[in-house]
Write a sequence for this structure.
């Protein structure tokens, strides 16, 4: 899949470029990147090559945005090729993020914190912002003010309390945040039917393999605690934000860290005395 994505993006960029401004070597490199059959060794250097060509073509250093960097790790972990994926991603990111004079900056997003994941071995100078940090906390979803403005735009301001009850479940830093996907879809429904009933739109938009596996392994105590959360109660648990996939199976207690990192649970109180509740 990564090869197809890289090939598709290379084709898109190549179509926007003027062939007269590309050297013969760059044209050959772009054609190689546009191949769905590129080798793993070629994929490892693909981002570096592409950023080099873009920097020379446009005369500006590039910004690399990598959304959900840990999805390939999740799929590899699920399908038993985790170690191979670690090697591929480690080399790709090292080439594109560390030894890359064409790079202005890079932004990566994912559920697992990047500091300890072994694909980042050898990289440094990261600024890490987790869901407990106050930096940029209002930018990861919609705030109260923004939701009110959206509903006012759609001429359904009276739907605010119901929208808040359903979708105001996240807590980033010191800010209560709404799930943007749910709010947008609910507004679409309200536009057609002003008294439309809210729906859990987000629930089917992501894979839940790790969560399901933990639930299946849960002991009686863990099941009781899950029932407490479903009832709207809070439980007290220690959260580890720097878990790697290799550590997930070490204890059932990692369930809570996974649920917290993936947005199923949120915190109450201060970070040093963190209580979890369902959202």
């Amino acid at each position: 899949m990564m090869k197809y994505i890289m090939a598709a993006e290379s084709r898109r960029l190549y179509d926007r470029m003027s062939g007269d401004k590309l050297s013969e070597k760059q044209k050959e490199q772009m054609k190689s990147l546009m191949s769905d059959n590129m080798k793993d060794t070629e994929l490892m250097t693909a981002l570096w090559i592409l950023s080099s060509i873009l920097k020379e073509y446009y005369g500006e250093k590039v910004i690399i945005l990598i959304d959900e960097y840990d999805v390939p790790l999740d799929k590899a972990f699920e399908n038993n090729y985790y170690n191979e994926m670690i090697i591929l991603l480690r080399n790709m990111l090292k080439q594109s993020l560390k030894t890359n004079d064409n790079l202005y900056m890079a932004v990566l997003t994912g559920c697992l914190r990047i500091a300890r994941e072994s694909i980042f071995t050898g990289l440094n100078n990261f600024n890490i912002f987790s869901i407990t940090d106050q930096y940029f906390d209002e930018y990861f979803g919609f705030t109260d003010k923004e939701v009110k403005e959206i509903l006012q735009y759609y001429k359904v301001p009276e739907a605010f309390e119901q929208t808040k009850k359903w979708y105001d479940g996240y807590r980033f830093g010191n800010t209560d945040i709404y799930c943007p996907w749910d709010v947008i879809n609910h507004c679409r429904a309200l536009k057609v039917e002003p008294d439309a009933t809210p729906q859990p739109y987000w629930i089917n938009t992501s894979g839940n393999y790790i969560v399901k596996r933990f639930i299946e392994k849960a002991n009686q105590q863990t099941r009781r605690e899950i029932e407490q959360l479903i009832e709207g109660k809070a439980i007290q648990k220690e959260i580890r934000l720097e878990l790697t996939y290799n550590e997930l199976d070490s204890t059932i207690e990692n369930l809570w860290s996974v649920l917290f990192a993936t947005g199923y649970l949120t915190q109450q109180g201060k970070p040093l005395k963190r209580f979890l509740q369902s959202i």
